[in-house]
Write a structure and sequence with these properties.
The complex is a heterodimer of chains A (274) and B (252).
Chain A lengths: L7 H26 L3 H20 L4 H20 L3 H25 L7 H6 L7 H20 L1 H9 L1 H6 L4 H23 L1 H18 L3 H25 L4 H30 L1
Chain B lengths: L6 E10 L2 E11 L4 E5 L6 H9 L6 E6 L3 E4 L13 H6 L3 H4 L7 H13 L15 H13 L5 E5 L7 H18 L2 E5 L3 H7 L2 E6 L1 E7 L5 H7 L4 H10 L12
Parallel strand pairs in B: 3-7, 3-8, 5-6, 6-7
Antiparallel strand pairs in B: 1-2, 1-4, 8-9
Classes of the chains: A mainly alpha (274), B alpha/beta (252).
Bound molecules: adenosine-5'-triphosphate and magnesium ion.
The site of adenosine-5'-triphosphate has 11 residues of chain B, from helix 1.
C-alpha cells in the first residue's frame, strides 16, 4: 500500500480513479432513474472528438473538453424538448461522427500521439495534477448540487412532465444536470476510458436501487459502491499488473453480482417470514 | 365577481403532426361551477385538460386561468421500482408553497397526513409507491391534487380503478369542498350517470365543442350528436340507469 504512493503517477492515478468514481456514481442514480444511460455513452464518445481536436491543434485538452461538453449538453437539452426517439437518434449520430473525426484527426497528427486504446479503455498514466484539481472541483459541484436540489432532482427523475405541472423547474434541472454530467464524463474519460465509463455511470445506481427505500439511501449506497470499486480496482490493477480501467469495471460487476445475490436472499427470507 | 370567469378559453386549436386534435374551442368557466366534460374516446378531453393545466404548451389561442389548480391525470406512467414513499409523492402537490432549494416543513408533512386521512388511506403514508394497487395509487394522486387546497380541481376520469365505496367517498369530498370552499370542479368522465347527477354544467367535446350547457338543458339530441356511433349503446345505458327522457328529450 505504501509503495503505491511512492510514485507520483501511481498516486495520481489512484486519487484520480477515486474522484472519477465518486462523481460518476453520484450521477448514476439520476441517470438510471431517468433512464438516460445513452446520454452518458454519447458524452463519453463526444469527449474523444474533443480530445483529438485538442491534440491536433495543440490546445489544452481540458478546456476543449469542457467547451464541447457544454455544447453537447445544451444540444441534448434543446432536442429533448421535442421527441424522445429523435433525441436518441441524434445522440447516436453525433457519437459516431465525433469518434470518426477524432480518429481522422489523430491519423494526421505528427509527433507523439497517445494510443487510441488509452482513450477507449483509460490510462492512469495520462493523469496530471490539473486533471485532479478539475475532478475534485467537479465532485464538490456535484455534491452541493445534489444537496441543494435534492427534491427537484427526485421529482424530475420521477416524472419530468408531471413535475413541471406542479411547478418544479424541470427545464433548469434538466439543463444543469446535463451540463454537469457531460463535464464529469469528459474529464473522467482519460482515466476510465470511453467504453468503460458507461459502467461507472450505471452500475453504482443499479446497486443502490436494489436496496434503497428512498433516493438518498440510493445515493449513499451508490457512492460507497463507486468508491469501493475504484479503490479496489486500482489496487488490484497494481498488484496483478493489469490495466486499471477494465479492472475497475470488473470490480463493479463483481460488486453487482454480490449485491444481487444478497438482495435475492433477503427477499426470499422476507417471503418466508410472512 | 360572477362576471369574471376563472377559466377562459378563446379560439383554442391544437394539432400534432397535421392531425387536428382540438378545433376552435371557446368557453368560460365561472367560480363555483361543477363542470362535466363528456365525449367519446379520443375526443380530446384529456388533451384539453392538459392544455388548461399547462402540460401542453404548443397550442394556438388563448387560455386564461385565475387561481390555483389541482390536477388528477387520467394515467401516470411511472417506474414502480422508483425508491419513493407515498408522502413524498403527495408533497409534490405542495411544491409551489416551498419552492426550489428549501426543504418541506413539519406543517407540510402534517397536511399530507391529514389529506390521506380524509381519503381514508392514512396507512399508506410511508408505503413505497411501487407497492400500491391501482386504486390506491389513484387515491394518492387525488390526495396530491387536494393537498394544496386548490381553487380549481380538475379530475380526468378519477373513478377509474376505484372501488364503489371509494367513488362515493370521492364524490362526497367533492361536494363538501364545493359547499365549504366554493371550489370550481372540472370532471372528465364516461360515467354519464354520475355526470348528470352531480354537475351543474356540461361541455360536450369531440374535437370541437358540440355543446356547453347547464346540465339540466342537455337533451338527447346533444348526446346523439356527440356519440354518433355509440348511440344504441347509450340508449341501452339509459335504460339500465332508469334515466327519464321527457317529451323535450331532456334527461333527468
Ligand atoms: N402525444 C400524442 N401524439 C399524437 N396524438 C395524440 C397524443 N396524445 C393524444 N393524441 C391523440 O389525440 C386525440 C385525443 O386524445 P385524448 O387523450 O385527449 O382523448 P380523450 O378524449 O381523453 O379520450 P379517452 O376517453 O379515451 O380518455 C386522440 O385521437 C389521440 O390519438
Ligand atoms: Mg382521456
Amino acid at each position: 500500500m505504501i509503495e503505491f504512493f511512492k510514485y507520483p503517477f501511481l498516486r495520481n492515478g489512484f486519487i484520480g480513479a477515486i474522484l472519477a468514481g465518486l462523481g460518476s456514481s453520484f450521477l448514476s442514480n439520476f441517470i438510471i432513474l431517468k433512464k438516460m444511460e445513452f446520454i452518458g455513452e454519447g458524452a463519453a464518445h463526444v469527449a474523444f472528438g474533443a480530445i483529438a481536436i485538442a491534440l491536433f491543434f495543440n490546445l489544452n485538452i481540458n478546456v476543449v473538453s469542457l467547451i464541447v461538453a457544454i455544447i453537447f449538453a445544451i444540444a441534448i437539452h434543446i432536442l429533448g424538448k421535442k421527441e424522445k426517439v429523435q433525441e436518441n437518434s441524434v445522440i447516436g449520430m453525433l457519437l459516431a461522427l465525433s469518434m470518426a473525426i477524432g480518429i481522422i484527426l489523430l491519423s494526421f497528427k505528427k509527433g507523439y500521439v497517445p494510443e487510441i486504446d488509452s482513450f477507449l479503455f483509460g490510462d492512469v498514466l495520462m493523469i496530471n495534477e490539473e486533471d485532479l484539481k478539475l475532478l475534485f472541483i467537479f465532485d464538490l459541484v456535484i455534491f452541493f448540487y445534489i444537496i441543494l436540489f435534492n427534491k427537484e432532482l427526485k421529482y424530475y427523475a420521477y416524472h419530468q412532465k408531471l413535475s413541471k405541472t406542479f411547478g418544479v423547474p424541470v427545464d433548469f434541472i434538466n439543463l444543469s444536470f446535463l451540463i454537469i454530467t457531460s463535464i464529469t464524463i469528459v474529464i473522467s474519460v482519460k482515466i476510465i476510458g470511453i467504453i468503460l465509463i458507461t459502467s461507472l455511470l450505471i452500475t453504482p445506481g443499479v446497486i443502490g436501487k436494489l436496496f434503497a427505500k428512498s433516493i438518498n439511501q440510493m445515493i449513499l449506497i451508490s457512492v460507497i459502491t463507486g468508491f469501493l470499486s475504484s479503490a479496489l480496482g486500482m489496487i488490484a490493477s497494481y498488484y496483478f499488473d493489469i490495466p486499471s480501467g477494465p479492472t475497475i469495471v470488473v470490480t463493479l460487476f463483481v460488486l453487482f453480482i454480490i449485491s444481487y445475490i444478497i438482495k435475492r436472499v433477503l427477499s426470499l427470507k422476507e417471503k418466508e417470514s410472512l | 365577481m360572477k362576471n369574471d370567469p376563472i377559466i377562459s378559453v378563446r379560439n383554442l386549436n391544437y394539432a400534432v403532426n397535421n392531425n387536428q386534435i382540438l378545433s376552435d374551442i371557446f368557453f368560460d368557466i365561472y367560480e363555483g361551477e361543477f363542470v362535466g366534460i363528456i365525449g367519446p374516446n379520443g375526443a380530446g378531453k384529456s388533451t384539453l385538460v392538459k392544455i388548461i393545466i399547462g402540460e401542453i404548451e404548443e397550442y394556438t389561442g388563448e387560455v386564461t386561468i385565475k387561481g390555483k389548480i389541482g390536477y388528477v391525470p387520467q394515467t401516470e406512467e411511472v417506474d414502480v421500482t422508483f425508491p419513493m414513499k407515498v408522502y413524498e409523492l403527495v408533497l409534490l402537490g405542495l411544491y409551489k408553497d416551498v419552492g426550489p432549494i428549501k426543504r418541506f416543513k413539519k406543517e407540510h408533512y402534517q397536511k399530507v397526513k391529514e389529506i390521506l386521512k380524509i381519503l381514508n388511506v392514512e396507512e399508506l403514508y410511508s408505503r413505497q409507491i411501487g407497492e400500491l394497487s391501482g386504486g390506491e395509487y389513484r387515491r394518492v394522486m387525488i390526495a396530491r391534487a387536494l393537498v394544496s387546497e386548490p381553487d380549481i380541481l380538475i379530475l380526468d376520469e378519477p373513478e377509474a380503478n376505484i372501488d364503489k365505496p371509494g367513488q362515493e367517498l370521492l364524490l362526497n369530498i367533492l361536494k363538501k369542498l364545493k359547499e365549504e370552499k366554493n371550489i370550481t370542479i372540472i370532471l372528465v368522465s364516461h360515467d354519464l350517470n354520475m355526470i348528470f347527477k352531480e354537475t351543474t354544467k356540461i361541455l360536450c367535446l369531440n374535437k370541437t365543442l358540440h355543446c356547453h350547457k347547464n346540465t339540466w338543458d342537455i337533451n338527447i339530441q346533444d348526446l346523439k350528436n356527440l356519440y354518433t356511433e355509440d348511440f344504441q349503446l347509450f340508449a341501452h345505458l339509459n335504460g339500465t340507469m332508469k334515466a327519464v327522457i321527457d317529451k323535450d328529450d331532456r334527461i333527468f
